[in-house]
Amino acid sequence: MKARPRFYSAPHFKTFWEEGNGKDLLDWSRATPDMNQFNQYAHLYHEVDSLGDAAVQETYLKLPYHEASALVEKYSASPVSPAEEAPANLKQLFLQMQEVPEWFNADLANAGARFCMRTGTNGLIILRDFTLMGGYDFAFLNKPLVFTGALKRGAVKRLKDTLEFWVNVTRENAMQTNSEAYRLIVRTRLLHAYARLKIRQKSDDWDYENWGTPINMWDMVATYTGFSLVFMQGLRKLGITISDDEEKGVFHLWKYIGYLLGIPADYMPDDKKDAVERFYLWTATQGAGDKDSAYLAKALLDENLESTILRYDFQRKNLRYLHICCNWYLLDEDINERLHIPKVPLPNVFPSIIRSANALTQKIFPLHRPKSYRKLVDLGHKQQMKVLDDYLTYTPKDFHY
């Protein structure tokens, strides 16, 4: 069974790539997508992280939860040797993750990490209001959230988990074996596998032909391309300048993160041209946003009202308004409409203020001067860690696979 480019001629596909943010991606990257290459990637729609699945089958699906968790934590926190007495597939997973591939360049990955840090709150706005919210319009990509019941558990914790993952993996030298970022990647990889196996085990209604295998490789590549390509596209909309080294670094960083998550390195793009051409092919498999998409969008907006980080109700309502302004500024109009993003007065004022502030900041701290650049990195890092600390403080710590 292979994926089909079902939506290549659909209005939502054409509008995105001919008039909307897709056109902006094509212009920026100078990519030349070729639908004749679709079949080179179609197999990914039913390819999965088989090693992650096997590790979950002999731990979380076989042992009591606390025993499985203790094993995973033990081998996440210290190096695993080939002679280790451990479940075979779990040991193999850790041996694979501990092996640093020859292509990995730590300096290049750190250039990407420094860029992510220097974006400060800009980066967090883009992650939430552009990458995450925009991703909800790809209807089939989000079906695992429906089938695992994540829709009912609310957006507060889901956002906290995403923020905790992103902030930790985008620090300099973060991906050292047994580091906090490494351990979060282990948890995320096993969470993907657990969700996939549970859906395949219990959900007779899963549409394999149209949605692919749950949490398949092509969907995963598209998701993590959102953290590189789409992330940088959104920041450009807010007036953030991106150097060639930073751009290369962001793609390299996420290529390595993808490798640790079980995605073969050849599947991850190395630059924006490659990323756009592959992303174009994948989007032809995705239906436009549906009622589940709109539900996810509403939950994300309402997270501002549910979170207890801000003390007063008027503060929460104002923050929700600001995020809605960013949605309308960053996302295509038809996507906002499909996601039922409310219309608000003066939606461009707040994003325009952000653009002006970024232009001024980059004049005061010229990016080509190492000391100025380092100040921006350190400042952005502090901003992001403050937001993460707020979410960790005010969100229940009830992570389960």
Short structural description:
Helices cover 65% and strands 0% of the residues. It has 401 residues and is an all-alpha fold.
Key features?
401 residues; mainly alpha; 2 domains; DUF2236 domain-containing protein; MPAB/Lcp_cat_dom; oxidoreductase activity; Lcp-like
Q: Kindly report the average pLDDT value.
A: 95
Low-confidence stretches: none
Rg, rounded, reads 21 Å
The run of helices and strands is HHHHHHHHHHHHHHHHHHHH
Number of helices: 20
> Any idea what the shape is?
globular
The total beta strand count reads 0
Question: What is the makeup of the main sheet?
Answer: none
Helix/strand/pairing category = mainly alpha
Strand content: under 5%
Distance between the termini: 29 Å
- Percent helix range: 55-70%
Please tell me the total number of domains. Answer: 2
InterPro entries: Lcp-like, MPAB/Lcp_cat_dom
Protein name: DUF2236 domain-containing protein
GO molecular function, one term: oxidoreductase activity
Pfam families: MPAB_Lcp_cat
Overall description:
GO terms for molecular function: oxidoreductase activity. InterPro entries: Lcp-like (IPR037473), MPAB/Lcp_cat_dom (IPR018713). This is DUF2236 domain-containing protein. Residues 139-342 form the ER-bound oxygenase mpaB/mpaB'/Rubber oxygenase catalytic domain. Pfam families: MPAB_Lcp_cat. This protein has 401 residues and is mostly helical. It folds into 2 domains: 11-46 and 105-158 and 203-394, no CATH class; 50-98, no CATH class. It has 20 helices and no strands. Helix 8 (120-135) packs across helix 17 (313-330) and helix 13 crosses helix 15 (272-283).
